[in-house]
């Protein structure tokens, strides 16, 4: 059992006593425990290409229109729930303590026998202030609508008039909200299921790319018993405050660990662009105000320009357990989704008394800095079909924006971090060049594109 790296420095005692015990030296990880390189000639397709889509810009426009449409469809499908026992203001003022975490863990234990919710939706506090958005599954009412994978991969979307949902009080408890259990989903005809989360094709591509990345950028976690494959957390962050150096912002060390790692990270951002764009479309619909704030800050802080944003950082939890925590160093909503071949791994939010099924491709966008959350026990599915040396197990992706980075980037011009080394160097742009580029751009192109 290992705690993930992003949650390690939140809940320390106020004054930790200096330990006199000798440090236990962990055994070295054997070389044979490296993440295997996939045996694939090409990655799985991400965005379907049709005849006539020759130019890259045309493909991107078609893709953006598709993803925006799917996200807006989620907005019309997803029910809006109210949680009368939750107050956002109380969550914002609640201190992060070991006692609070222990209480959350106790509630999670009580919820272990509850049924999980596999469906899409949004959850807000007693005043309908949004806390959580889930992109997973929806059951259509008409039988003549396209199947989930077909719609998600670009077939004609079902036409449906927009109908705003009035908030409904969500019923928590062992039996869950009526009509929203895993049994309700599995008993529904497949033709009625509509997928709001990521489809299998995109998951396969993202999984393959992630394993390629970690075959070069080895996870840095400690060994846990007999080591068959490395585990750990990889941080790909365009810029955050360096530990022990207040005010000094730089890219995460995983991005520039060595020459091969830097090359592979750039390739990884390119290989996963389509997935990131769709996630951004989800974020824009679920939390529009935060999206605009993140987008402006990302345009100023971007380092690897093949990352479409708007989150400044990604954490990849490679086959580790995720214990109860709050992401207290984040500046707002984070987006998470799991992938891989595994059993279990439900998503617990004890503050909300909510248990999500959280299967591969389900997306959760939440105020994770305010809400305690954890992933339930899981085990690799060794019987699941594998291809190209893709190994089983659970992989979690977290897209986040460090709060201190967000504060520094507020009001900064596009490409500020690249131009000034996060404010440590003179501006590399010549006088007047910025005005010329902005005039040429005329708001028609993304601010991160020269």
From TrEMBL:
Q: Which parts of the sequence are annotated with region: Disordered? A: 1-23, 142-185, 423-450
**Biased segments, Basic and acidic residues type:** 1-17
Q: Which domain of life is it from?
A: Eukaryota
Q: What is this protein called?
A: Uncharacterized protein
